[in-house]
Design a protein that fits this description.
The protein is an alpha+beta fold.
């Protein structure tokens, strides 16, 4: 099994940017604009040599949809990932609180996590490239 440092080195050598490392998970950065880096929801787990991907639907985009429909919108973004061998590994609702009032929720993200175990770092780099190519958030259009 590679170490997180080895995963990070492989990502950089493959031309990807690293957002952060937490434990054995290296998070890959995706540039939304030239000067703004956002967490893309793409991760490489060094302990299992697996690529993880989080797709979401935001409540503010679909204010009248029930929770189940919100998760289905996020799952719909993962069709190509499932066809490529990714499996759904979990769901969660992430609350986005108002910075000036913790009790107030500005938005909620309905997230579906996918993961694919791979044979090694070369295959992981190919899957990271694929995962970065996917749309990460459901849109109204």
């Amino acid at each position: 099994m590679p170490t997180p440092a080895e995963v990070k080195k492989a990502l950089i050598a493959a031309g990807f940017e690293v957002y952060r490392t937490r434990g054995d998970v290296v998070h890959v950065a995706e540039r939304a604009r030239e000067n703004l880096i956002m967490d893309s929801g793409v991760r490489v787990h060094s302990s299992e040599v697996a690529v993880g991907l989080v797709l979401r639907a935001q409540r503010s985009d679909f204010p009248h949809d029930p929770d189940d429909a919100m998760f289905e919108r996020a799952r719909g973004l993962g069709v190509a990932a499932r066809e490529r061998g990714f499996s759904e590994v979990g769901t969660q609702i992430t609350r986005l609180p108002d910075p000036s009032d913790e009790e107030r929720t500005l938005d909620s993200w309905f997230e579906v996590s996918f993961e694919k175990r791979v044979a090694g770092l070369d295959e992981a780099m190919a899957e990271v490239g694929f995962a970065l190519s996917l749309e990460k958030a459901a849109s109204r259009s």
